[in-house]
Amino acid sequence: MVQFRTLLSASLIAITYASPLSRRIDQITSDSTAKWEQACLAAGGADQCNTLSVKASATLLADGGICDQQDAADDMIDLAKELGDDQDMIDLTQIFVQQPRNSPDKLQVPYCQLAPRNSELNGLFHCQFASSDLTRFSGDQTGNLPLGVEAVTPPGSCPAKTDGPVPDGVQLDTLVTEPQTE
């Protein structure tokens, strides 16, 4: 019995060290739209700001649809246009649409394959988080390249952050102030 218990304990220790738990990659999604919401309030958006901010930040959750983030960004641009083409709101929306999404399995999150409604979002796509497996995607393996893009170089980058993926859990708007580098 002692030998069996020792063998079982040794086996469990070996399994634990040989295969570390694979945690998902996530973030505090409400932080992703906080600056946008403040710009919206300053532009006179009132109650619409929080409602749209909450809706948009929820699109970054692991169970969000592939195009939900872009659809929310289109709604954010629509409101910015209603409020006199507020440039701060537009810039922050363009950064938001590039924010990495939570990954349930530490794989890359697929890209939306539909064009946005608003031209201000054309050519923009989300970054990936740094500890994502940058060789594989979640889901059915469609959307492995952003719409109209032949390669993402380096892997995990996006137009606002061309040097590579975003550190896990970090908000893109804390790393960049311009929605696109030229």
Fold and architecture overview:
There is one protein chain. The protein is mostly helical and 182 residues long. It has one domain. The chain is 35% helix and 4% strand. The protein has five helices and two strands. The protein has a two-stranded parallel ribbon with strand order 1-2. Helix 4 packs antiparallel against helix 5. The longest helix has 17 residues. The radius of gyration is 20 Å and the shape is globular. About 9% of the residues have low confidence.
Concise structural overview:
The chain has a two-stranded parallel ribbon. Helix 2 (34-43) runs antiparallel to helix 3, helix 2 runs antiparallel to helix 5 and helix 3 (47-58) runs antiparallel to helix 4.
The neighbouring-strand order within the major sheet is 1-2
In DSSP terms (H or I, runs of 4 or more residues), the helix count works out at 5
Mean pLDDT: 87
Tell me the total number of β-strands.
2
